[in-house]
Inverse folding.
């Protein structure tokens, strides 16, 4: 739940007054991923589950999409990343590649930022853009303005701007999550249901 002190900031920055209540889509989750019962958290397990390799499922990359996609409007959500060392977050086009090794960049339908090795942050452009953050964020806010052609990322506690992609979107976009495989990176990525 967003503290009252942040409500006015959110309303100023984001014109959509009902932040997107997302859940994760098990049908897209790579076979090592473990989803919470309420489908709001994901982390990578040690073993692959025996799951059908349907066309929607990521393989072998440890990624998952939300069940909710967007083809219009303005939408905002937050993801808890506080104890992670590595992650990717953002949006993916519905028809973006899900099989084999994926290069995350806008030209192939992925608009994402990342954390690497605990303290390196970047926007996955071509080439990647290094992000200089003043402090390690506990939560990342993601804002999509579909018609405006913008995907923006924020430190959700301070609402400080991290990066904005500008593009022309076609078709449905889905929130995208990669919690990464790493023995020091076992904490889940967790969706925070923002309430105004």
């Amino acid at each position: 739940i967003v503290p009252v002190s942040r409500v006015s900031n959110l309303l100023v920055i984001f014109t959509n007054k009902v932040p997107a209540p997302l859940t994760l889509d098990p049908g897209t989750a790579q076979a090592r991923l473990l989803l919470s019962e309420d489908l709001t958290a994901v982390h990578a397990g040690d073993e692959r589950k025996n799951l059908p390799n349907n066309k929607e499922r990521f393989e072998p990359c440890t990624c998952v999409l939300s069940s909710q996609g967007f083809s219009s409007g303005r939408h905002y959500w937050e993801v808890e990343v506080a104890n992670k060392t590595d992650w990717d977050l953002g949006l993916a086009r519905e028809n973006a590649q899900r099989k084999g090794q994926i290069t995350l960049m806008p030209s192939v339908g992925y608009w994402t930022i990342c954390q690497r090795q605990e303290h390196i942050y970047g926007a996955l452009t071509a080439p990647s853009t290094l992000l200089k953050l003043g402090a390690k964020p506990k939560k990342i806010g993601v804002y999509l303005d579909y018609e405006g052609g913008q995907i923006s990322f924020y430190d959700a506690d301070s609402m400080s701007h991290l990066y904005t992609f500008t593009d022309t979107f076609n078709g449905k976009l889905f929130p995208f999550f990669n919690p990464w495989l790493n023995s020091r990176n076992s904490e889940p990525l967790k969706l925070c249901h923002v309430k105004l």
Q: What stands out?
A: The first helix runs from residue 4 to 13. The chain has a mean pLDDT of 89.
